[in-house]
Amino acid sequence: MSDAQRITVLVDEPIATISPYLHGTFAEHLGGCIYPGIWVGEESAIANTRGLRNDVIVALRHLQIPVTRWPGGCFADHYHWRDGIGPRAERPLRVNDQWGSVAEPNTFGTHEFIDLCRLIGTEPYIVGNVGSGTPGELHDWVEYCNFGGRSALADERGANGAADPFNVRFWGIGNENWACGGTMSAEHYAEEFCRFRTFVKSYADTNVHAVACGPNSKDWSWTQRFFERVARYCDGHDRSPMLDSFAGHYYCGTAGEAAQYSDAQWLELLAKARAIEGLICGHRQIMDDYDPQRRIHFIIDEWGTWHDGEDSDPLYMLYRQNTMRDALACALTLDVFHNHSDKIWMGNIAQTINVLQAALLVMDDQCVKTPTYHAFDLYRPHQGGQALRTVNAGESISDGGASAEHCRDMYRDNSGFSLKVIEGSASVTGDTLCATVVNTDPNKPVELALSLVGAKLGNVDTVTLAGADIHAHNTFEAPDTVTLAESKAVAVRGTELRIALPAASATRVIGPLR
Ligand code: AHR
Question: Which CATH number fits domain 5-10+388-512: 3.20.20.70, 2.60.40.1180, 3.50.50.60, 1.20.1250.20?
Fold first, then answer.
């Protein structure tokens, strides 16, 4: 084992509350995510609750996902919500023009989505159609969901089985409107945002939280131009009171293939994932010029790895295996979110099931938890904690290799980028410390020296996510190759905790502060 890698937690230096919404997810009508990932129908031989798969409900409920975004993605700007309400047998069959021109049966619509959210305990985040819809259509969807009094739309919701309003708070005003959502300029979208937002109403107990379409990764110009136009056009004296969150997207891509890669490609992809930090700092810096009090949240409502694939079966489009590498890309991203919890408020990994960096892979009557699922499980106790500043004295393992320039470019101020052997974050909830640490080294275990300034740490429980090697993953044949391993009451000697971190692993440490 090499020399100890040290992380110091500064207990007296809180950053901000870790918004639970940072651990959110996203489910789109794309490939096998909704059909059959979530919806199999009441008549299915697969065990279900009102048509929603039981295995998926149980697995997702365990993760305590705070928010789930639906129905897209790009699909959102094709979707007309009225297609997905009323008796299922009478709903129109459409073509999913966005994703493979497959049949869209509309059997999973608004009521089914809300049912799913309630069953798994997540808050709904609905994305409205700006690209091919109208402000009136979006207005009606919000009224249908949220109006608690009598109106034709509220009565229709009641006739469709939901007398009480759904109280959906989060509404996206379009998706990627710089591309699939209408190929708009930032200025054009800013004006469309204001127009559509005008007709999205808050009723009774549900204050709408409106999300604007933000940039594609490092498109600083979109952010700059959007805010400039919104500030001038929407409301000259109070900047943008109609805007609650501004949502960027970041896919760190791939290096090699989903389950085949070299050590160098392992590091390259982890470095690209870690570079999300640059986006957060850069976009927040631009937003601060317009919104210095940070009343508008910066969020990233699509993020994750995106490996190349054949996609010959449109019913399983963007279906990707995911390995320990994806799990650590996820862990590093969540650590970055926590360490910048004063700048970022929501994150939605793409996507929940069968698409891109999925938590679950589902086929026929089988459901497998991916390493990414376990990473979310591992990091769960950070939700709602106070993020604490950490000092990472660990060595650098990579300057990003081939991607160094890309990563550096992610920083608006070009301050440089490197991936350390260990990366992590810490939070406190009540008097309990939670720290998570990733050993990014593909081959070497390292010794972690974790010390605290400002408090002492009692004996800790640890949980580790590791595989036999860097390619480890779960399959339908071997679903538990990668799981979590627990150690109880690990002794803290003197002022520091010393534990071994397996190569290519993520570890959670939880213990009482004294
Ligand atoms: O997550 C897949 C697609 O990626 C989404 O539909 C789109 O918003 C993004 O380009």
Answer: 2.60.40.1180
